[in-house]
TrEMBL record, chain A:
InterPro entries in UniProt: Ribosomal_uS10 (IPR001848), Ribosomal_uS10_dom (IPR027486), Ribosomal_uS10_dom_sf (IPR036838)
Coiled coil (UniProt feature): none
Protein known as: Small ribosomal subunit protein uS10m
Family affiliation: Belongs to the universal ribosomal protein uS10 family.
Biological process terms in GO annotation: translation
Location of region: Disordered: 36-64
From TrEMBL, chain B:
Organism for this UniProt entry: Cladosporium halotolerans
Transmembrane segments: none
A Pfam family reported for this protein in Swiss-Prot or TrEMBL: Ribosomal_S14
GO biological process: one example: translation
Keyword Electron transport: no
Keywords for this protein: Ribonucleoprotein, Ribosomal protein
Protein name, per record: Small ribosomal subunit protein uS14m
Residues in the signal sequence: none
Single GO MF annotation: structural constituent of ribosome
Amino acid sequence: MASPAYYESLLSSAKRLRISTPKPSLSNSIQCRALSQTATTQARQDRPTRSRRNSSQSSIKDDPLRMELRNIRLPKAVQATYLAPLKRTPTHGIPVCDLQMRSYSVRNLEIFADFCLRAAYYLNLPAKGPVPLPKITERWTVPKSNFVHKKSQENFERVTMRRLVQIQDGHPETVALWLAYIQKNRYYGVGLKANVFEHGGLEVGSEMDAEATKVKDAVDEKLKLLGGGPSMSRAHQRVNTMVHDEPFKAAYGAYSPMNQAESVPNAAERLVTVPLDPEVPEQMKEAARARRG
Amino acid sequence: MAQFRGKKLDLGCFVNIMNIRDHTKRKVFEQHEPERQALRYIIRNTSLPQRTRAQAQLELSQMHCYTRPTQIRNRCVMGAKGRGVFRDFRMARFQFRLNALAGNIPGVKKASW
């Protein structure tokens, strides 16, 4: 069983291979998570070992400089990597970013979730999680043979594990930085999906209006360069009136039944028309004339 | 049809006339899709003159059959089989089984529950 790297001092990391460690007891393996490693390591080193390299070990042990180096505690940041990730406490609890990680292997997923939480801590982002989301299990059943024999089949499955890390009360820029950092240091076999929420003030409407006027001014400037301007808008109006003009509409069959068949040729001449009464108002007469073509 | 086919082989999967043909159809459809959609729009637009719409109908019906999306069929990338192809893996059932047992498909294992 390989002993964890932090049992050894900073200098003797190369010698780690030579020194055969005695069987670590249960108490030792529990203390892996404890901050004060030096004392226990010391105790273990002092214990008599039955290994053949006892003589060489004793020389190392007797070296006072090495002993002293062995007693130097690890840096706090390094110690922290052996402990559960630290978390900032959110002040308001407003979710800003939901990061979902997916993988087919739990180990990769756990490692990466841990990494994400640590990154969030050092960026001063309050993070929650990792929340284990329900697994997605897909199953397929296929016949074992390549041809017929449907009775003997085989089942296959793919289980997708998911973890959710939620960032709360983070500045959008910091969150973007965090996401970029995580993306840069992606871990193999882990997929990422982030939902980023942005919060605005209550004056969103007025802000959007201001933005719209700004955009309109910019577009108008561009349109002036096009040579359009008021003359173009006039042309636009003319086209509009033309399109809605009655004779024009009649010409392309807008008044025919079902709006699609062309009108009957020379329909105006073939209609039986009754002359209008003199008391019919002038406007109606006008309309009738227009309709006739 | 040979006139659509690429001069050089541009396929990375199992090569077979059926796979080449299907690949060609996909490419031709992709090329002509805007044209097809424009004609379809003209045909369905009731505010256009009947003549235009009839012309568009003719034009659409006279386009090459390779430009139709219905010509495309999912084929196995490992053996060009046309039936029993999983969309998730683009493989026919037997090739899927072989690859899954060999561990070539990430995450897919033998299931027992």
